[in-house]
Amino acid sequence: MLDIISKIKQKDSDGITLLYNRYGKQLYGYSVSKWKLSEDDSWELVYKTLYKVISVIDNYSFENENKFTAFLFKIFINYLRNHYRDNKDRYLETTELHESHEKISAERDEQSNEKLSPLMQCLQKALHILEDWQRIVLLMRAQNYSYEDIAKYVSKPTDQLKVYHMRLKKIVTQKTNECIDKHE
Amino acid sequence: MDDNKHIEEANLDKALNNLFLETNSIEIDEDSVRLIMEQEYDIKINTTKEKQFLKKLNRKPNDPGRWNYPIIIIVIVIAGIGFLLINKQSYFDNNKPTENKNRPDQTMNNTKYDFPPLNEQSGLLMEKDPDSLISHSIETSTSVPQEVPIKNPAPYFSQSAIQKNTSNNSLFPFIADDLNKFNNIKNKMFEKLLKHERGMYSMVEEGVIGYRGNEVTIEPFILRNQAITNLEYKFFLADLIKKNRMDDYKKASVKNEIWTNYNHKILANTYFTEEMYNDFPVVNISMEAALLFCNWLEKEINAYSRSVDPKAKPLTIRLPQSAEWIFITRRGYAQIPNCDGYNTIYDLREGIVDKSYIKRINLIKKRGESKLTELDELFSTNRYGMNENQTLELFKRGSNFKSKLTPDSLYPNKMDVYSKAAHVSEMIQEQGTGKTLIVGACWKNKQECMKMVTEFNSASASPYIGFRVVVTNDSKASYKKPFW
User: Fold this and answer.
1) Cα separation of B168 and B257, whole Å?
2) Are the CB atoms for B187 and B307 separated by under 8 Å?
C-alpha cells in the first residue's frame, strides 16, 4: 500500500495503474453491483475519486493501509452521495456538504445528527436498538449483498437470514414510524 | 411525500442506503470499508473503457484530451468573436490566434501532482480546499514508515566459540566468551523489538472476527514476522545457564536427536549448533520450552525497557492464539501458499479459518497472481522422504524468499514483509483453552500432516515445528495509541 502512495507522490504512472487495479476496480464493481449505477456513472465516480486522491495525496501521510482505504472510500462516498443528490431521489435526498462537515471537530457526530432529516434521525435511532449483526443484515441487504455473503459476516445460517431480514425490516419500519409520530 | 411522514417497508432499503451515505460521508467505519473493498464483485469490465479510463487518469496537464478539444475550440471561437466585437479594426490588424486564457486551469494549486482537472464538473473540486472533504476522518502521522530491507536479526558469532561435540543429552556447552557476546547481541534484539522494527515485527490493529460461532475481539498486538531463530534461542539458553536456571534449561533444551528419526544424522549434530544455521527457525523444542522462552523474553524485555526508560510500560510476550492466527491470516498478515496439498493455515474442517479467507485466496488467484510462485512450491513440498540437503534447502529458501516473492494483489506490502513466515509449522494456543494447536505450512496431504502432529505429540517436539511470538501492551492508555 505504501508503495502505491510513494509511487503516486513521485508522479510515477505505475502508481496510478496500481491504484486503479487495487481500489478503482473494487469501487467500480461496488457501484455497479451494489448501487446499481450505470457503467458510465460508475466510471465517472471512480475517476473523480481516484483523481481526487491523486491530487491531494501529497498533503497526507497514512499510518496504515486501513487509514488510506478509509480516506479513499470516504471521497468515493461523498461523490456517490452527491450523485444521488443530483439525481433527486426522495429517500436519497441528502444535505449539502456543509462547511461543518469539513471541519475537524470533536462534536462532529452531534453536528451531523442535526443535519439529518427527522426520518433519518428516527431511522438511526431504530437501528441503534438492534444488535450489531442485525444492523449488518439490514444494511448489507439494502446494498444488494446476497444472503450467502451476509452470512459470512454475521455467523448466521444462510437459510434463516431471509426470515431474520424480513422481521428486522418490520421492526425497524415500525420503530421509525413510532419515532416520527413522536417527532410530530 | 414529506420526510416527516411515515416510511413504508418497501422503501426501507432506500432509506437505509441514504443513511449509509449520510453517515459514511462524515465518519467512515473502517471495518465496513474493509468488507466492501475485499468483496469479489462479479462485474465484467469493458476493457476499452478501462483503457480510456486509465489514459484519462494518466493524462498530462498539457495534453488537452478528447473532451477538452471541443471546449478549446468553443473558447477560441468565443474569444475570437468577443475580440472582434470589441476591436474589429485591431482584429484585422493583428490577425493572430489569441492565447487561450479561458481554458480550464490545468495546474493544481494545492498539489505538486501534474494531473489535469477532471472535466467541467471538476471545477467543484478545484474550488474547495483539497483537504476539505476528508480531512476530519484521517489520522495523519508525521512520518510514513519507510520500507527497509529485512536484515539478519543479529550477526553470527564465532563458530569456534561453540564446541562441536554436542551430545544429544548433555547441556549445551556455552563458554564464558559466548555468554558475553550473547549479552551484546541480545540487547540489539531487544531494541529491535521495542522499536517493533519493520521487517521483524508488525503492528496488528484491533478487530473483531467470528471464531467458532462466537464474535471474538482481537486486541492490538505486535506480531513477530517469522519463527524464532536458532540464534535467538541460543541467547535464551545461554541466559538460563548464566542465571543458573538449570531445571528450566533442561526443559528448554533442543531435542536434536529427533532429527535422527528422520534419517537426518548430520543435522542432529549441526542444525542448532553451527553458526551457518543461526537464522534458521529453531525446531525440535517442546511447547513447554516455547512458553519458557516467552516468559524469559517478557522478563528480559521489560527489564531492558525499564533500564532505558523508567516509565516504560510492561509488555506481555506470548504465543499467538488461534483467533489471532485466523485474524492475521485473514487480514493478510501471513503468507498464503497456493497449496494443492493439505494447507494447515486454512483447513475449514479444522476450523482454522473461515470461508471468507478462501474467498480472498480465490480473489488473489483471479487477479492474475494465479501462477505458482517459488514459495508455493516450497510449501507444497513433501517433507517426508527428503534427504538432509533437501531439508536444509527448504529452510534456506524459506528464509531467503523475500526478494523473490510475487506480491499479493490485495496486500502487497504485508505480503512483502511476511514472506519469511511459515516455512515451518508453528505452535499456537487455542483461544480460551490454551490447548496446543499446530498450524501453518502446507503438507503433501492430510495423512502426512497428521503423522507429523502425532510424532510431535509423542516426542513433544518435531523438526518441522517452530514458533513465533506476539507482543501486547496490556496497560495501553487508549486505542488511539495501542502500541508503545
Assistant:
1) 6
2) no
Asked if A104 contacts A158 with a C-beta cutoff of 8 angstroms, the reply is no
Is there a contact between A173 and B43 if contact means CB atoms under 8 Å apart?
A: no
Tell me if residue B221 falls in helix, strand or coil: strand
Residue with cell 533500564: B307
Q: Which chain A residues are within 8 Å of B9, Cβ to Cβ?
A: 169-170, 173
- Are B425 and B347 within 8 A, CB to CB? no
Asked if the ipTM is above 0.85, the reply is no
Chain A residues lying within 8 Å of B1, measured CB to CB: 90
- Helix-helix angle B287-308:B176-194, to 10 degrees: 70
What pTM was computed for the model?
Answer: 0.46
Q: Please, what sign has the CA dihedral across residues B280, B284, B287, B293?
A: negative
CA B446 to chain centre: 27
How close, in Å, is residue B151 to chain A by CA atoms? 19
Of the candidates A77, A138, A184, the beta carbon closest to that of B24 is on A77
The whole-angstrom distance between A159's CA and the closest CA on chain B is 16
pLDDT digits 0-9 by tens, B252-272: 999 999 998 888 888 898 888
Provide φ and ψ at B436, rounded to 5°: -75, 130
C-alpha cell at position A94: 441528502
The single-letter DSSP state of residue B162 is S
Running DSSP on this structure, what letter comes out for residue A172? Answer: H
Q: For residue B433, what are the CA distances in angstroms to B43, B323, B386? A: 44, 12, 35
The more confident residue out of B170 and A148 is A148
Query: Which pLDDT score, from 0 to 100, does residue A111 have?
Result: 41
